[in-house]
Design a protein that fits this description.
GO molecular function: transferase activity
Radius of gyration: 26 Å
Organism: Mesorhizobium mediterraneum
Order of helices and strands: EHEHEHEHEHEHHEHHHH
Oligomer: single chain
Shape: elongated
Structural class: alpha/beta
InterPro entries: Glyco_trans_2-like (IPR001173), Glycosyltransferase_2 (IPR050256), Nucleotide-diphossugar_trans (IPR029044)
CATH class of the largest domain: Alpha Beta
Distance between the termini: 30 Å
Protein name: Glycosyl transferase
Keywords: Membrane, Transferase, Transmembrane, Transmembrane helix
Number of helices: 11
Largest sheet: 7 strands, mixed
CATH topology of the largest domain: Spore Coat Polysaccharide Biosynthesis Protein SpsA, Chain A
CATH superfamily of the largest domain: Spore Coat Polysaccharide Biosynthesis Protein SpsA, Chain A
Amino acid sequence: MPQEVRYEPAIAVLLPCYNEELTIADVVRRFRETLPTAAIYVYDNNSRDLTALRARAAGANVIREPRQGKGNVVRRMFADIEADIYLMADGDGTYAPEDAPQLINTLLTERSDMVVGTRRGVTDDAGRTGHAFGNSVFNRLYKWLFGSEFTDIFSGYRAFTRRFVKSFPAVSGGFEIETEMSVHASQLKLPVSEIGLDYGRRPEGSSSKLSTYRDGAKILWMFAMLMKETQPLRFFGAFAVLFLASSLFLMMPVLIEFVETGLVPRMPTWVLSVGLLLLSMLAAVTGLILDSVSRGRAEQKRIFYLSMPSGRVERERASALATLETGPGKTPRAA
């Protein structure tokens, strides 16, 4: 009687790094101890210190990504690495490698496509006060714009299925990449989970690469762009309402004066109000048209997501079916 072959999922630990020589060796070592069967990849993003050397000495596979920015690194990692389960963390030691099994277990038991390790204690370090305030503001804004699936959209400690990784477009270039991941999951209504994890402090001499104001502005711009792409009717509808309100505000006194006197003495105001009314109508029509386009794009993204095998078991099963369908003089069908 044939025995069922069981496959252990292939796990890849992905660590984007920039000038983390003080912590990367310890992070790699702890991940190797926690997940002994996992492949650990450190993507060095033009570090000016010994990050790459110390990561390689600790046993990690080190790859250089010359395009500066975390989003560029994540896009390269997701394109390069083949695995069943992907675990992404930072190389600064603020996320505990010992929590990795909890993230992976949640991914498997809840059959989620992404598990986010929400950060406890993010405000304990006084140096993070500005970051923590911005994090709170942006999380509230995210809930209002895109949905309530996430409470910490900026957490860098995440576990993914292969299906999520290979269907995620990753167009961001910087720290706004986590926001894009969250919007992608919300738009396609993918199964996601969150678990609370302790957030550590950086060691003495290590500094954050996040700029409160510069990166905050980039994230805010990304919010606007993602809303335009995923919710164009709501985006352009807001401009339509604004133009309409401005038009009526300018138009009503001129109309009242015309009804009373039969004259239009403030012609420039009338022309401006009519122009704003036309802009309002144009914005509304643009939103309606692009909403249909956005729905079509979302459907295509969903179909592509569903076409991706979620792991090695599914890929082996598909290969076996193709082999069974192959007979004398036949060739396997293209996957």
